[in-house]
Amino acid sequence: MAQAIKPAPTLDDAQIERNIDAADRISVATQWQLMWWRFRKHQLAMVSGVIILLFYTVALFADFFAYSDPFTSSAQLSLLPPQPIHFFDEGRFRPHVYAITGRRDPVTFRRVYQPDPDIKLPVRLFVKGYPYKLFGFIPADRHIIGVEGGRAEDSIFLLGTDLNGRDLWSRLMLSTRISMTIGLVGVILSLFLGVLLGGLSGLYGGVVDNVIQRVIEIVRSIPTIPLWMGLAAALPRDWSITRIYFAITIILSLIGWTVMARVVRGRFLSLREEDFVTAAELAGASQMRIIFRHMVPSFLSHIIAATTLAIPAMIISETSLSFLGLGLRPPAVSWGVLLQQAQNIQAVALSPWLLYPVVPVVVAVLAFNFLGDGLRDAADPYG
């Protein structure tokens, strides 16, 4: 028996109007609007973008999130384990921590800490603490969290302390500022060098192209890690933290511009014969104006995606150099500097919380990579 043929489903008037409106929006949308609409569909990239914003929020307000002076050491609090927060007291919501008492073990000579349940220190929000300058010039002393107590022992240690008795949470907040900004500043410098030299190489060609490409090949042929170590080791040991910070940034930028230069060169080779470039040359525009005003905006979305993928490489480079003792050095605070105390396996076995700075490194790198993937997919809205 022949089966009855079902009629094809028809669209109602409202659905047809919605489709027409969507088509009209796409036809008149700018490149950035199309890129944003496609990027919103990449949920993992959206979540990664929020995580990165949180990282830079911490970097901007690091002293506010740090409840203890990151540079104040105390031999009585050396290698203190993470201190838990108790949220309820006798059935009522009263966040508090127990006071800590420490003693020296006569056998192992290590300090042993015991919480004292009889002394409960209430945990408060927006408490007064050590003074600092918000944004570098606004005096402030408020912190996001803290306890009410006068002694150094009467404090809160969410992630424990390091070998010198310094609060690891506060140092982690401050190190986030250094590690996240050194990656951002380094990528901006390498982006400028890559766009400039790659643009000149693709636009002029000939001898200029050959010289720049040979320089790129020489830089890329040198083993990366020994090159980093050699350049970083050449920095004078008596330099200030600020000078070392900018020197490391410049070193990372001088190494990381080659990939962007190759990408820009390839794009310029395909664009330099376009009509709008010829029109700009006939109008008397300078070469720098043609590069940055006419050619770069035509593939700016691709540059943004490549830049986002380059930032985690900068972060890992700084962390690796500082971990090996060849990058930032104490009293500077970065993720790599914090991990220096975790080089000893025995220290990590006895004090595993010294490895906690690995967590923000992994999270930041993954977030930047997922965000870069989303931007790369959204860079071609017509694809």
Briefly characterize the structure:
The protein is α+β, with helices and mostly antiparallel strands and 383 residues long. It has helices spanning 13-28, 31-40, 43-60, 62-65, 168-204, 206-221, 224-233, 241-271, 275-282, 287-295, 300-323, 335-338, 345-350, 358-378, and strands at 86-89, 92-104, 111-134, 138-147.
Q: What is the global morphology?
A: elongated
The counted number of beta strands is 4
Stretches with pLDDT under 50, minimum 5 residues: none
> How are strands sequenced across the largest beta sheet?
1-2-3-4
Write up what this structure looks like.
By secondary structure, the protein is an alpha+beta fold. Helix 5 (168-204) packs antiparallel against helix 6 (206-221), helix 5 (168-204) packs parallel to helix 8 and helix 6 (206-221) crosses helix 8 (241-271). The two termini are 46 Å apart. It folds into two domains: 83-156, no CATH class; 171-378, MetI-like fold, CATH 1.10.3720. It has helices at residues 13-28, 31-40, 43-60, 62-65, 168-204, 206-221, 224-233, 241-271, 275-282, 287-295, 300-323, 335-338, 345-350, 358-378; strands at 86-89, 92-104, 111-134, 138-147. A hairpin with a 6-residue loop joins strand 2 and strand 3 (111-134). Strands 1-2-3-4 form a four-stranded antiparallel beta sheet.
